[in-house]
Amino acid sequence: MNSLFLPPGRVARRALPKSVTLAHGGGGTAMRDLIDEIFVSAFSERPVALEDQARIDLAALAGQGDRLAFTTDGFVVDPLFFPGGDIGKLAVCGTINDLAVGGARPVALSCAAIIEEGLPVETLRAVAQSMAEAALAAGVPIVTGDTKVVARGACDKLFLTTTGVGVVRAGLEIGIGRARPGDVIVVNGQLGDHGAAILNARGDLALEAAIESDCAPLHDIIDALIAAAPGVRSMRDATRGGVAAVLNELAEASGVGVRVRETDTPVRADVQGFCEILGLDPLYLANEGKFVAVVPPEQAESALAALRGHPLGQGATAIGIVTDGRPGRVVMETRFGGERIVDMLVGDQLPRIC
To answer: 286 lies in a domain?
Structure first.
């Protein structure tokens, strides 16, 4: 949305064509028309002068914490629209969540759009509007960005890259390597919804299951968790690789063992059935509104009460504990009384789920 040269005093805008063309990425009036009509009109409530950067008041940031958090993420989900969300909402929520699980309060987002020539303008408009609505609902504005158009076949319809800035509260130390034996592992609800929703939305399997993505911003529920359990050791949103990937990263980084109970792992009946039909493990399915938190044992009950008191945490449960045995290993106690190792996958069960 930046680096534009326009004749002084230009005001009139031409109607956009039905599809995006290479001219819309060329830096001229066609590009400016696209940016104004699609992005600026969605992201800003008032006219703005487009600069090459956004400017954020440092004093305002310092008043919220003592460290800056910074993250970036790319989104290539297929299909662009799915039950419970779309690539735009996913980009906003996913970037907010990457900040929030580090204990940061999200402040602002940027977005770069890589658009394939021929993408319907109305599709792009719908994505931008969805991003705007998600950002507004979360209270985290999209303040800058960029637009590029590539030839047909150079990308698949639309790719988004979003960057987020946040501020970490003073005195808060959260990290993947901070778990200690005896700590309790909690999740804020049912697992695997997003991965199952994306696979079902692709339509290759002709299944009738009505599964929606759990795509949601997590910063408010994480605020509630931190207030109730200020000693929280670690948090991660369970996206690609699911909860299994998070637990393995936790065990390795902290040099501890992890034991989880299958009977306490929350999965919706329709998602469980979906996985059984396809031979998938919901523990490895992606989520976009779920996170794993590690809390000291004395704060576990207050943590769960705070999570369950929030709309995004009503299914919160403790799924396991951190141990001093078998460092680096994740062990699941199965519902049949046995045990199995929960390894990190080499690849992903479902590509392009975010």
So the answer is: yes
Burial class, 59, CB count within 10 angstroms (exposed 0-12 / middle 13-18 / buried 19+): exposed
Looking up residue 150, the CATH number of its domain turns out to be 3.30.1330.10
Which domain, by its residues, includes 160? 22-168
Q: Answer yes or no: is 8 within a domain.
A: no
Residues in the chain: 354
**124 within 8 A of 38, measured Cβ to Cβ:** yes
Q: Looking at the structure, do residues 198 and 334 belong to the same domain, yes or no?
A: yes
The strand pairing partners of 68, in sequence order, are 167
Q: Which residues of 63-102 are buried (b: 16+ CB within 10 A; e: fewer)?
A: eebeeebebebebbbeebebebbbbbbbbbbbbbbbbbbb
Residues in the chain predicted with pLDDT less than 50, given as ranges, are 2-12
Q: Does 105 share its domain with 217? A: no
The tokens for 257 are 């063992």
Q: Considering the entire predicted model, what is its pTM?
A: 0.93
| pLDDT tens-place string over residues 51-77 | 888 999 999 899 899 999 999 999 999
